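Notes to self, DivIVA domain-containing protein:
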Amino acid sequence: MFSWVLLIIVLAAFVVLGVWFWGSVFGRGEVLPPLDPDETRRLNQEAVGAGDLDSVQFELVYRGYRPEQVDDVIGRLSEQLKEAEVTIARLSSPKSD
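result:
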């Protein structure tokens, strides 16, 4: 019975040392540099203008995405929606002769 307990303790020690060694050698992973806010805004506006919403990028912050970037994209999309509604209303209104 004592040999099983000793084996589990030794195995746990090896796991702890292995995880520590692996983390010290390889680290936590590559940290991405922060996005340039002006470049990101320009690229997001181009992507929204082209209708390519898959290309929209937001910088990650502690609790999600950077709010001003999200607000900018939402504002741009709402402008496009208003323009589309005006165009639809203009095209669907009866023409007077």
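- The helical segments are 2-26, 37-50, 67-92.
- The mean pLDDT is 87.
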